[in-house]
Amino acid sequence: xxxxxxxxxxxxxxxxxxxxxxxxxxxxxxxxxxxxxxxxxxxxxxxxxxxxxxxxxxxxxxxxxxxxxxxxxxxxxxxxxxxxxxxxxxxxxxxxxxxxxxxxxxxxxxxxxxxxxxxxxxxxxxxxxxxxxxxxxxxxxxxxxxxxxxxxxxxxxxxxxxxxxxxxxxxxxxxxxxxxxxxxxxxxxxxxxxxxxxxxxxxxxxxxxxxxxxxxxxxxxxxxxxxxxxxxxxxxxxxxxxxxxxxxxxxxxxxxxxxxxxxxxxxxxxxxxxxxxxxxxxxxxxxxxxxxxxxxxxxxxxxxxxxxxxxxxxxxxxxxxxxxxxxxxxxxxxx
Length: 335
Ligand SMILES: C[S@@+](CC[C@H](N)C(=O)[O-])C[C@H]1O[C@@H](n2cnc3c(N)ncnc32)[C@H](O)[C@@H]1O
What we know:
The structure is a single chain. This protein is of the alpha/beta class. α2 runs antiparallel to α8. It starts with 19 loop residues before the first strand and ends with a strand. The longest helix is centred in the first third of the chain and has 21 residues, at 70-90. An 8-stranded mixed β-sheet has the order 1-5-4-3-6-7-15-14, sandwiched between helices. Strands 2-13-10-9 form a 4-stranded mixed β-sheet. It has a 3-stranded antiparallel β-sheet with strand order 8-11-12, with helices on one face. It has helices at residues 28-40, 54-65, 70-90, 107-113, 127-140, 184-198, 214-220, 227-243, 302-311; strands at 20-23, 44-45, 95-99, 119-124, 145-150, 170-174, 203-209, 246-247, 252-259, 264-271, 275-279, 282-286, 291-298, 315-321, 327-333. It is globular and about 60 Å long. The chain folds into 2 domains: 33-50 and 225-298, no CATH class; 69-210 and 300-333, 3-Layer(aba) Sandwich (Rossmann fold). The protein is built from 9 helices and 15 strands. The protein is 35% helix and 25% strand.
Protein backbone atom coordinates (compact mmCIF):
# COMPACT_ATOMS: atom_id res chain seq x y z
CA UNK A 1 0.00 0.00 0.00
CA UNK A 2 1.41 3.37 -0.97
CA UNK A 3 0.22 5.98 1.52
CA UNK A 4 1.34 9.48 0.65
CA UNK A 5 2.81 11.39 3.61
CA UNK A 6 1.58 14.87 4.60
CA UNK A 7 2.89 17.92 2.75
CA UNK A 8 5.77 19.39 4.79
CA UNK A 9 5.56 23.00 5.93
CA UNK A 10 8.82 25.01 5.75
CA UNK A 11 10.84 25.03 9.00
CA UNK A 12 13.73 27.24 10.13
CA UNK A 13 16.07 24.30 10.57
CA UNK A 14 15.49 22.93 7.06
CA UNK A 15 18.87 24.05 5.73
CA UNK A 16 20.66 22.20 8.59
CA UNK A 17 19.56 18.94 6.98
CA UNK A 18 20.80 19.83 3.53
CA UNK A 19 24.30 19.27 2.17
CA UNK A 20 23.70 22.38 0.04
CA UNK A 21 20.87 24.64 -1.06
CA UNK A 22 21.33 26.60 -4.31
CA UNK A 23 18.78 29.33 -4.94
CA UNK A 24 18.26 30.30 -8.58
CA UNK A 25 14.56 31.09 -8.08
CA UNK A 26 13.28 33.12 -11.06
CA UNK A 27 12.56 36.73 -9.98
CA UNK A 28 8.99 38.11 -9.66
CA UNK A 29 9.82 40.29 -12.71
CA UNK A 30 9.73 37.13 -14.85
CA UNK A 31 6.26 36.26 -13.55
CA UNK A 32 5.07 39.80 -14.36
CA UNK A 33 6.62 39.85 -17.86
CA UNK A 34 5.36 36.34 -18.73
CA UNK A 35 1.86 37.18 -17.46
CA UNK A 36 1.62 40.40 -19.50
CA UNK A 37 2.88 38.57 -22.62
CA UNK A 38 0.56 35.60 -22.08
CA UNK A 39 -2.56 37.72 -21.51
CA UNK A 40 -1.77 39.76 -24.66
CA UNK A 41 -2.05 36.72 -26.95
CA UNK A 42 -5.18 35.94 -29.01
CA UNK A 43 -5.51 32.69 -27.06
CA UNK A 44 -4.55 33.97 -23.61
CA UNK A 45 -2.09 31.66 -21.85
CA UNK A 46 0.07 31.35 -18.74
CA UNK A 47 2.93 28.95 -18.07
CA UNK A 48 2.07 26.05 -15.72
CA UNK A 49 5.31 26.64 -13.86
CA UNK A 50 3.52 29.54 -12.11
CA UNK A 51 1.02 27.13 -10.49
CA UNK A 52 3.66 26.19 -7.98
CA UNK A 53 3.86 28.59 -5.07
CA UNK A 54 3.62 27.03 -1.59
CA UNK A 55 -0.18 26.79 -1.84
CA UNK A 56 -0.10 25.43 -5.40
CA UNK A 57 2.41 22.74 -4.42
CA UNK A 58 0.23 21.69 -1.46
CA UNK A 59 -2.84 21.57 -3.74
CA UNK A 60 -0.90 19.42 -6.20
CA UNK A 61 -0.24 16.95 -3.35
CA UNK A 62 -4.01 16.83 -2.76
CA UNK A 63 -4.60 16.13 -6.45
CA UNK A 64 -2.23 13.16 -6.11
CA UNK A 65 -4.55 11.74 -3.43
CA UNK A 66 -7.74 12.23 -5.48
CA UNK A 67 -9.34 8.92 -6.52
CA UNK A 68 -9.63 10.06 -10.16
CA UNK A 69 -5.91 10.91 -10.41
CA UNK A 70 -4.56 7.48 -11.37
CA UNK A 71 -1.06 8.85 -12.13
CA UNK A 72 0.50 8.85 -8.66
CA UNK A 73 -0.76 5.52 -7.33
CA UNK A 74 -0.05 3.77 -10.65
CA UNK A 75 3.49 5.11 -10.86
CA UNK A 76 4.24 4.26 -7.21
CA UNK A 77 3.01 0.68 -7.68
CA UNK A 78 5.00 0.31 -10.89
CA UNK A 79 8.12 1.64 -9.14
CA UNK A 80 7.72 -1.03 -6.43
CA UNK A 81 7.61 -3.67 -9.10
CA UNK A 82 10.60 -2.59 -11.19
CA UNK A 83 12.99 -1.42 -8.44
CA UNK A 84 15.25 -4.50 -8.48
CA UNK A 85 15.80 -4.04 -12.22
CA UNK A 86 16.41 -0.29 -11.83
CA UNK A 87 18.94 -1.00 -9.05
CA UNK A 88 20.70 -3.56 -11.23
CA UNK A 89 20.87 -1.19 -14.20
CA UNK A 90 22.10 1.72 -12.08
CA UNK A 91 24.79 0.13 -9.90
CA UNK A 92 26.12 1.24 -6.51
CA UNK A 93 26.59 4.69 -4.95
CA UNK A 94 24.51 6.57 -7.49
CA UNK A 95 23.99 10.30 -7.46
CA UNK A 96 20.25 10.72 -8.02
CA UNK A 97 19.08 14.04 -9.46
CA UNK A 98 15.34 14.68 -9.55
CA UNK A 99 13.72 17.23 -11.86
CA UNK A 100 10.42 18.68 -10.53
CA UNK A 101 10.80 16.93 -7.16
CA UNK A 102 7.65 18.41 -5.58
CA UNK A 103 7.11 16.73 -2.21
CA UNK A 104 9.92 14.19 -2.85
CA UNK A 105 7.54 11.29 -2.22
CA UNK A 106 8.57 8.96 -5.01
CA UNK A 107 12.30 9.35 -4.44
CA UNK A 108 11.95 7.34 -1.21
CA UNK A 109 11.30 4.27 -3.34
CA UNK A 110 14.56 4.79 -5.24
CA UNK A 111 16.62 5.61 -2.15
CA UNK A 112 15.29 2.45 -0.48
CA UNK A 113 15.76 0.25 -3.55
CA UNK A 114 19.09 1.39 -5.02
CA UNK A 115 22.42 -0.09 -3.89
CA UNK A 116 23.80 2.34 -1.29
CA UNK A 117 22.88 5.62 -3.05
CA UNK A 118 25.41 8.36 -2.26
CA UNK A 119 23.50 11.52 -2.95
CA UNK A 120 20.09 12.99 -3.77
CA UNK A 121 19.74 16.36 -5.48
CA UNK A 122 16.20 17.77 -5.76
CA UNK A 123 15.43 20.45 -8.37
CA UNK A 124 12.17 22.40 -8.27
CA UNK A 125 10.83 25.90 -8.89
CA UNK A 126 8.67 26.01 -5.72
CA UNK A 127 11.33 27.27 -3.32
CA UNK A 128 9.95 26.84 0.22
CA UNK A 129 8.16 23.62 -0.63
CA UNK A 130 11.35 22.21 -2.16
CA UNK A 131 13.46 23.14 0.85
CA UNK A 132 11.04 21.57 3.33
CA UNK A 133 10.61 18.38 1.27
CA UNK A 134 14.35 17.91 0.61
CA UNK A 135 15.20 18.59 4.28
CA UNK A 136 12.74 15.86 5.27
CA UNK A 137 14.64 13.43 3.04
CA UNK A 138 17.88 14.63 4.70
CA UNK A 139 16.39 13.83 8.12
CA UNK A 140 15.13 10.42 7.05
CA UNK A 141 18.21 9.32 5.09
CA UNK A 142 21.26 10.44 7.14
CA UNK A 143 23.61 8.28 5.03
CA UNK A 144 22.60 10.04 1.81
CA UNK A 145 23.96 13.53 1.09
CA UNK A 146 20.89 15.60 0.20
CA UNK A 147 21.06 18.86 -1.77
CA UNK A 148 18.41 21.09 -3.30
CA UNK A 149 18.41 23.52 -6.21
CA UNK A 150 15.58 26.01 -6.65
CA UNK A 151 15.57 26.71 -10.38
CA UNK A 152 13.53 26.77 -13.55
CA UNK A 153 14.61 23.61 -15.36
CA UNK A 154 13.75 25.22 -18.69
CA UNK A 155 16.99 27.18 -18.19
CA UNK A 156 20.44 25.54 -18.04
CA UNK A 157 21.36 24.43 -14.51
CA UNK A 158 24.92 24.06 -13.21
CA UNK A 159 25.61 21.89 -10.18
CA UNK A 160 27.46 23.73 -7.40
CA UNK A 161 31.01 22.38 -6.82
CA UNK A 162 30.09 20.71 -3.52
CA UNK A 163 27.32 18.76 -5.26
CA UNK A 164 29.27 15.77 -6.52
CA UNK A 165 30.31 13.40 -3.75
CA UNK A 166 30.56 10.04 -5.52
CA UNK A 167 32.03 8.31 -8.55
CA UNK A 168 28.76 6.39 -8.92
CA UNK A 169 26.43 6.70 -11.87
CA UNK A 170 24.38 9.88 -12.20
CA UNK A 171 20.75 8.85 -12.40
CA UNK A 172 18.17 11.47 -13.37
CA UNK A 173 14.61 11.00 -12.11
CA UNK A 174 11.64 12.81 -13.67
CA UNK A 175 8.44 11.20 -12.40
CA UNK A 176 4.81 12.28 -12.27
CA UNK A 177 4.32 12.84 -15.99
CA UNK A 178 5.91 16.29 -15.59
CA UNK A 179 7.61 15.88 -18.99
CA UNK A 180 4.12 15.73 -20.54
CA UNK A 181 3.46 19.33 -19.47
CA UNK A 182 5.68 20.51 -22.30
CA UNK A 183 5.27 20.53 -26.08
CA UNK A 184 7.34 17.68 -27.53
CA UNK A 185 10.11 19.99 -28.81
CA UNK A 186 10.40 21.65 -25.37
CA UNK A 187 10.38 18.22 -23.69
CA UNK A 188 13.31 17.25 -25.94
CA UNK A 189 15.11 20.46 -24.94
CA UNK A 190 14.61 19.69 -21.22
CA UNK A 191 15.99 16.18 -21.81
CA UNK A 192 18.97 17.65 -23.70
CA UNK A 193 19.73 19.91 -20.71
CA UNK A 194 19.33 16.94 -18.38
CA UNK A 195 21.75 14.94 -20.56
CA UNK A 196 24.33 17.73 -20.28
CA UNK A 197 24.05 17.65 -16.48
CA UNK A 198 24.17 13.85 -16.22
CA UNK A 199 27.15 13.48 -18.57
CA UNK A 200 28.42 10.45 -20.48
CA UNK A 201 27.39 7.19 -18.84
CA UNK A 202 24.46 8.86 -17.06
CA UNK A 203 20.94 7.46 -17.04
CA UNK A 204 17.42 8.73 -16.60
CA UNK A 205 14.23 7.17 -15.18
CA UNK A 206 11.17 9.03 -16.48
CA UNK A 207 7.46 8.63 -15.73
CA UNK A 208 5.40 9.09 -18.90
CA UNK A 209 1.62 9.05 -19.08
CA UNK A 210 0.03 6.96 -21.85
CA UNK A 211 -2.81 7.59 -24.27
CA UNK A 212 -6.12 6.21 -22.98
CA UNK A 213 -9.87 6.77 -23.12
CA UNK A 214 -11.06 10.35 -22.83
CA UNK A 215 -13.37 9.81 -19.85
CA UNK A 216 -10.53 8.53 -17.64
CA UNK A 217 -8.35 11.45 -18.70
CA UNK A 218 -10.94 14.16 -18.18
CA UNK A 219 -11.94 12.81 -14.76
CA UNK A 220 -8.27 12.87 -13.68
CA UNK A 221 -7.98 16.57 -14.60
CA UNK A 222 -11.40 17.62 -13.29
CA UNK A 223 -11.95 15.63 -10.09
CA UNK A 224 -15.37 15.63 -8.43
CA UNK A 225 -13.90 17.11 -5.23
CA UNK A 226 -12.85 20.25 -7.12
CA UNK A 227 -9.18 20.05 -6.10
CA UNK A 228 -7.85 20.52 -9.64
CA UNK A 229 -10.22 23.45 -10.04
CA UNK A 230 -8.76 25.08 -6.89
CA UNK A 231 -5.23 24.37 -8.16
CA UNK A 232 -6.01 26.08 -11.49
CA UNK A 233 -7.82 29.05 -9.90
CA UNK A 234 -4.94 29.55 -7.45
CA UNK A 235 -2.99 30.99 -10.37
CA UNK A 236 -5.33 34.00 -10.35
CA UNK A 237 -4.93 34.35 -6.58
CA UNK A 238 -1.16 34.29 -7.06
CA UNK A 239 -1.44 37.06 -9.68
CA UNK A 240 -3.37 39.15 -7.15
CA UNK A 241 -0.93 38.53 -4.29
CA UNK A 242 2.37 38.78 -6.13
CA UNK A 243 1.63 41.07 -9.08
CA UNK A 244 -1.06 43.27 -7.52
CA UNK A 245 -3.48 42.19 -10.27
CA UNK A 246 -7.12 43.25 -10.02
CA UNK A 247 -9.15 40.21 -10.95
CA UNK A 248 -12.47 38.76 -9.82
CA UNK A 249 -11.53 35.11 -9.21
CA UNK A 250 -15.22 34.17 -8.85
CA UNK A 251 -15.81 35.26 -12.46
CA UNK A 252 -13.70 32.27 -13.64
CA UNK A 253 -14.13 28.51 -13.66
CA UNK A 254 -11.83 25.56 -14.27
CA UNK A 255 -12.15 23.74 -17.58
CA UNK A 256 -10.40 20.53 -18.75
CA UNK A 257 -10.69 19.42 -22.39
CA UNK A 258 -9.05 16.69 -24.45
CA UNK A 259 -7.33 17.95 -27.60
CA UNK A 260 -7.27 14.93 -29.93
CA UNK A 261 -5.06 16.58 -32.56
CA UNK A 262 -2.22 17.12 -30.07
CA UNK A 263 -2.92 14.11 -27.80
CA UNK A 264 -3.15 16.26 -24.69
CA UNK A 265 -5.45 17.29 -21.87
CA UNK A 266 -5.65 21.06 -21.69
CA UNK A 267 -6.57 23.07 -18.61
CA UNK A 268 -8.13 26.49 -19.04
CA UNK A 269 -9.49 29.24 -16.81
CA UNK A 270 -12.81 30.17 -18.42
CA UNK A 271 -14.58 33.50 -17.92
CA UNK A 272 -18.16 32.77 -16.75
CA UNK A 273 -19.23 36.37 -17.49
CA UNK A 274 -17.70 39.42 -19.18
CA UNK A 275 -14.78 40.36 -16.96
CA UNK A 276 -11.31 41.87 -17.01
CA UNK A 277 -7.86 41.56 -15.48
CA UNK A 278 -5.94 44.70 -14.72
CA UNK A 279 -2.18 44.45 -14.10
CA UNK A 280 0.53 47.11 -14.03
CA UNK A 281 -1.71 49.64 -15.77
CA UNK A 282 -2.76 47.22 -18.51
CA UNK A 283 -6.35 46.05 -18.92
CA UNK A 284 -7.20 42.65 -20.42
CA UNK A 285 -10.88 42.28 -21.32
CA UNK A 286 -12.42 38.81 -21.38
CA UNK A 287 -15.70 37.91 -23.08
CA UNK A 288 -17.99 35.27 -21.51
CA UNK A 289 -16.62 31.82 -22.45
CA UNK A 290 -13.13 33.15 -23.33
CA UNK A 291 -10.29 31.21 -21.70
CA UNK A 292 -6.75 31.50 -20.41
CA UNK A 293 -4.89 28.31 -21.37
CA UNK A 294 -2.89 27.27 -18.30
CA UNK A 295 -1.60 23.71 -18.80
CA UNK A 296 -1.08 20.89 -21.28
CA UNK A 297 -0.61 17.25 -20.27
CA UNK A 298 0.54 15.32 -23.30
CA UNK A 299 -0.20 11.60 -23.54
CA UNK A 300 2.20 9.31 -25.38
CA UNK A 301 2.70 5.91 -26.92
CA UNK A 302 5.82 4.05 -25.71
CA UNK A 303 7.50 4.38 -29.11
CA UNK A 304 6.46 8.03 -29.48
CA UNK A 305 8.18 9.00 -26.24
CA UNK A 306 11.29 6.98 -27.08
CA UNK A 307 11.63 8.95 -30.33
CA UNK A 308 11.67 12.21 -28.35
CA UNK A 309 14.28 10.81 -25.94
CA UNK A 310 16.48 9.74 -28.85
CA UNK A 311 16.48 13.26 -30.31
CA UNK A 312 17.92 14.41 -26.96
CA UNK A 313 20.78 11.88 -27.18
CA UNK A 314 19.35 9.15 -24.92
CA UNK A 315 19.18 5.45 -25.78
CA UNK A 316 16.07 3.60 -24.55
CA UNK A 317 17.35 0.77 -22.33
CA UNK A 318 14.17 -0.53 -20.70
CA UNK A 319 10.51 0.41 -20.44
CA UNK A 320 7.76 -0.85 -18.16
CA UNK A 321 4.03 -0.20 -17.89
CA UNK A 322 1.36 -1.19 -15.37
CA UNK A 323 -0.98 -4.11 -16.16
CA UNK A 324 -3.80 -1.74 -17.18
CA UNK A 325 -1.54 0.13 -19.61
CA UNK A 326 -2.19 3.49 -17.92
CA UNK A 327 1.35 4.69 -17.23
CA UNK A 328 4.96 3.94 -18.19
CA UNK A 329 8.46 4.28 -16.76
CA UNK A 330 11.38 4.61 -19.18
CA UNK A 331 15.02 3.87 -18.34
CA UNK A 332 17.21 5.83 -20.76
CA UNK A 333 20.99 5.85 -20.95
CA UNK A 334 23.64 8.20 -22.32
CA UNK A 335 26.46 6.57 -24.29
C1 LIG B 1 3.35 17.50 -12.04
S1 LIG B 1 4.24 18.02 -10.61
C2 LIG B 1 5.10 16.49 -10.19
C3 LIG B 1 5.60 16.46 -8.78
C4 LIG B 1 6.27 15.14 -8.37
N1 LIG B 1 7.51 14.94 -9.10
C5 LIG B 1 5.37 13.96 -8.58
O1 LIG B 1 5.75 13.06 -9.33
O2 LIG B 1 4.28 13.92 -8.00
C6 LIG B 1 5.48 19.03 -11.35
C7 LIG B 1 6.60 19.49 -10.42
O3 LIG B 1 7.60 20.17 -11.22
C8 LIG B 1 7.84 21.48 -10.70
N2 LIG B 1 8.03 22.35 -11.88
C9 LIG B 1 7.12 22.64 -12.84
N3 LIG B 1 7.67 23.42 -13.79
C10 LIG B 1 8.96 23.60 -13.41
C11 LIG B 1 10.05 24.31 -13.99
N4 LIG B 1 9.92 24.98 -15.13
N5 LIG B 1 11.26 24.28 -13.34
C12 LIG B 1 11.41 23.60 -12.17
N6 LIG B 1 10.40 22.91 -11.58
C13 LIG B 1 9.21 22.92 -12.19
C14 LIG B 1 6.61 21.85 -9.88
O4 LIG B 1 6.91 22.76 -8.85
C15 LIG B 1 6.16 20.47 -9.36
O5 LIG B 1 6.76 20.16 -8.14
